Amino acid sequence: MASLSWSCIFCLFLAGFGAQVGLCFSSKVYVVYMGSKSGDDPDDVLSQNHHMLASVHGGSIEQAQASHLYSYRHGFRGFAAKLTEEQASQIAQMPGVVSVFPNLKRKLHTTRSWDFMGLLGEETMEIPGHSTKNQVNVIIGFIDTGIWPESPSFSDANMPPVPAIWRGKCEPGEAFNASSCNRKVIGARYYMSGYEAEEDSARIVSFRSPRDSSGHGSHTASTAAGRYVTNVNYKGLATGGARGGAPMARIAVYKTCWDSGCYDVDLLAAFDDAIRDGVHLLSLSLGPDSPQGDYFKDAISIGSFHAASHGVLVVASVGNAGNSGSATNIAPWMITVGASSMDRDFASDIVLGNGMKFTGESLSLFEMNASARIISASEASAGYFTPYQSSYCLESSLNITKARGKVLVCRIAEGSSESKLEKSKVVKEAGGAGMVLIDEADKDVAIPFVIPSAIVGKEIGRKILSYINNTRKPMSKISSAKTVLDSQPAPRIASFSSKGPNSLTPEILKPDVAAPGLNILAAWSPAVGKMQFNILSGTSMSSPHITGIATLVKAVHPSWSPSAIKSAIMTTATILNKNGKPIRVDPEGRMANAFDYGSGFVDPRRVLDPGLVYDAHQIDYNAFLCSIGYDEKSLRLVTRDNSTCDQTFTTASSLNYPSITVPNLKDSFSVTRTVTNVGKPRSVYKAVVSNPVGINVTVVPGQLIFNRYGQKIKFTVNFKVAAPSKGYAFGFLTWRSEDARVTSPLVVRAAPSPMGLMR
């Protein structure tokens, strides 16, 4: 009995009064998803949910209410509750239930960037030939860690009244009240029932309110829609003005992410409220682990499906795993964003005693006044640690006598989740004067180290270690970090950015597009480090760049569907860097392909005039679901209407998507696409094809003649295997007119022949 927690003792006590002791020991939180919203009154929905729960609690309404956490009643149907595995299984068999799945935790995918992309101006962010002033009527919802509303990035100076369509609220809480909102931050809510049900209740949570205690939410919101702030810097680095992509747009905050992550039941509650509140776009810089599961057992896929059906565009980050097939947030009804560099780096110089000079990534402002001995950390092993273990500068692994006053060369393993910052603290505690960190994954992310430090890749690391091993008294000196512009061709795809192919539905290319996500300066929470602005890297930072651009498209074209906006962003992207050469991938410098950047690097100067768009609506996504195995019964559970699979596609490749992927080409295959004219009423487009290696591609018709705005024309793309090949091949189809280029990536893999050889 002594080993039992107080909660279990309390459960045993309750058992004497007829309570279900099994619930106490084995219950956990589940999502019960029931498809699209019905016409029922929200209060009736709550009552129906309680009765469903009562049926697995021996008819007890009291126990049903006690187990209930959320009811989803506005954008879609469902609820969250504490259930045993057996109870969850019973509910999964009930009429109207699409899926029942555990409350999983999602991870956060943790400025000059706008100048780099060609958007000029301080507050207007005008694109030549268009007025984007209507952005004051566009509302962006951010599902993240909250917001620091007092930041100058969220000032409402000179902003007009809140749009009349807004139905949200400013929810009070710790260090946050209704007056914390303004004409810029027009709504703020927070959700923690799922978090509290899963985490240790004794843990202290900062700000039980929409206030941001981590900085991530403030950073992403200001990147997309922050006001112009002059003379911003990070400890003297990256000095200049900071602004978001749509500085006059409105912000609504849905805080679902806490110190350990973001739980599904809270995320779904945020989606449900945001749809009802009236947001036009939703931005998420978080996601599941890879590989991602079924769409309707994934909270973000479910929420974004219903958001899209209500006309809300969802923009999400692809993830930071970096390896092939690791892309997440892969549903076709959202836009998924990879991360790139821009033309600014933060670097420290490493000067060796023989005069050799190397540059490494760093945000450390500490500088060595004089040269010092440089050794491999393996030479400073302590206690029971082997030299190999000490080479990774693990906690307590360094001998103070051997490390004091020296520069230590440490390693971080490829795929490691270790903190690079912590390694500099370990070296500092051992008395080290500086650190060179060899990143075996070559991830080019600058870190604010606590001593003079720099990150180098494997090749430079090998040269430094060679110098140490072949020199009697090796010396080095590390300078403080500095801002470096145009040091290498940009953009480059960041090494950490998750890559395709799509692990769940390979016929849908993911990511869709790339945007800056490396070393981005934006607003911050002073609760962390007492800073108002900070530099972060991740696809978390690239996603809000696309959110800002999508907001400008929505401002200029308010009637466009989410898929039309996505199409405009994708088909106008570029695969060339600022020097006009093909974009490359860090760290190896190989030429990038569609699995790295989707359609390419976003070009905001062209998005408002795409010429043609690939549009898709609910009926198209229904046909997509049928093509991947949903029958009419399961489809109707999701849609809660009379949808059928009569118009299904032969494969998911036939969804009217702005990219075309054929992952299993057997000799020949054809897909049909439909484009809508959003350019000049009278225009002629001609097809230009770059064939994937070993594949012949023809387009019928090869010319599209439009006579009016909004006119739709179908065309067919025919693929035929021409030569044996291995793996995926990449090409593109461009529809070219006098004024526009509308480009779609072509991604094809020939199926193995019956003999096991590639065709």
Account of the protein in words:
It is a single chain. The protein is an alpha/beta fold. The model is unreliable at 1-25 (pLDDT under 50). 23% of the residues lie in helices and 27% in strands. Helix 3 (42-55) packs across helix 4. 54% of the residues are buried. A hairpin with a 2-residue loop joins strand 8 and strand 9 (237-242). Strands 17, 18, 19, 20, 21, 22, 23 and 24 form an eight-stranded mixed sheet that branches. Residues 137-578 form the Peptidase S8/S53 domain. It is found in: Secreted. Keywords: Hydrolase, Protease, Secreted, Serine protease, Signal. It comes from Salix viminalis.
Major β-sheet annotation: 8 strands, mixed
Number of helices: 19
Estimated helix fraction: 10-25%
State the distance separating the first and last CA atoms: 67 Å
How many E-type strands?
39
- By secondary-structure content and strand pairing, the structural class works out as alpha/beta
What integer value in Å does the Rg equal?
Answer: 27 Å
Summarize this, please?
This is PROPROTEIN CONVERTASE SUBTILISIN/KEXIN. With 759 residues, this protein is of the alpha/beta class.
Task: Furnish the topology, listing elements before pairings.
Layout: H1 6-15, H2 21-26, E1 28-36, H3 42-55, H4 61-67, E2 68-72, E3 76-83, H5 85-92, E4 99-102, E5 105-108, H6 112-117, E6 139-144, E7 185-190, H7 193-198, H8 216-225, E8 229-234, E9 237-242, E10 250-255, E11 257-258, E12 261-263, H9 264-277, E13 281-284, E14 286-287, H10 299-309, E15 313-317, E16 335-340, E17 344-352, E18 357-361, E19 372-376, H11 387-390, H12 400-403, E20 407-412, H13 420-429, E21 434-439, E22 453-456, H14 458-469, E23 475-478, E24 482-485, E25 492-493, E26 513-516, E27 520-523, E28 533-536, H15 539-556, H16 562-571, E29 584-585, E30 590-591, H17 594-597, E31 612-613, H18 618-627, H19 632-639, E32 660-665, E33 668-677, E34 683-690, E35 695-700, E36 703-706, E37 712-721, E38 728-736, E39 741-750
